[in-house]
Design brief:
Blueprint (H helix, E strand, L loop, with lengths): L1 H19 L12 E7 L6 E5 L1 E2 L2 E2 L5 E6 L8 E3 L2 H8 L1 E6 L4 E5 L2 E11 L2 E8 L2 E13 L2 E14 L5 E7 L1
Parallel strand pairs: 1-11
Antiparallel strand pairs: 1-2, 2-5, 3-4, 5-6, 7-8, 8-9, 9-10, 10-11, 11-12, 12-13
Length: 172
């Protein structure tokens, strides 16, 4: 009887922990994750991981991009379709260095992203709110009634100077 009671308490604590955590925070991070894009249209993030070749940045193809399902098949990943790559979530290589690459996102070419190694980890550098920062995520808010039209994009990251969180909302 006592073991059933303890098991019941453990189950209750586990379920309370799950309820208390914000499911929007769970982006299934990986060791290679540079940043992700969350969208108001659905809960499935588009993930941008560093693409390594023999432990170094693949400077010609620096990003591995895919969806993470958080609705029907939790945690399952899917690659981008041709249209998604070319029209929305892909990128274009601007320049390649020894162990760094500069890219622009297809849907947001206004800012360059620099993928490089800092300390022992690859990061994605960008300017957020006029400050050099490490990009962590973008949030895309779709206009009401039209999920293909963007109301604003919010960039979130950490400043390289102080390590403080920085956010910038860019209206379309």
């Amino acid at each position: 009887m006592k073991s059933k009671y303890i098991l019941f308490l453990l189950c209750m604590l586990f379920s309370l922990t799950l309820c208390a955590s914000n499911p929007e925070d769970n982006t299934y991070p990986t060791q290679e994750r540079l940043f992700h894009i969350a969208r108001s249209a659905n809960k499935n993030p588009v993930c941008y991981d560093v693409n390594l070749k023999d432990g170094k940045l693949d400077v010609k193809s620096p990003l591995n991009i895919y969806w993470v399902n958080r609705e029907e098949r939790m945690g399952e990943t899917n690659g981008l379709s041709y249209i998604q790559r070319k029209m929305a979530y892909g990128y274009k290589l601007v320049s390649a260095g020894d162990d760094s690459s500069e890219v622009i996102l297809t849907a947001y070419p206004a800012r360059k992203l620099t993928i490089c190694k800092q300390d022992s980890k690859y990061v994605c550098l960008i300017t957020i709110d006029n400050q050099p920062a490490i990009l962590e995520s973008l949030y895309v808010k779709a206009k009401s009634g039209n999920p293909l039209s963007v109301e604003y994009v919010e960039l979130q990251g950490i400043t390289t100077a102080t390590g403080a969180k920085v956010t910038e909302r860019v209206k379309k």
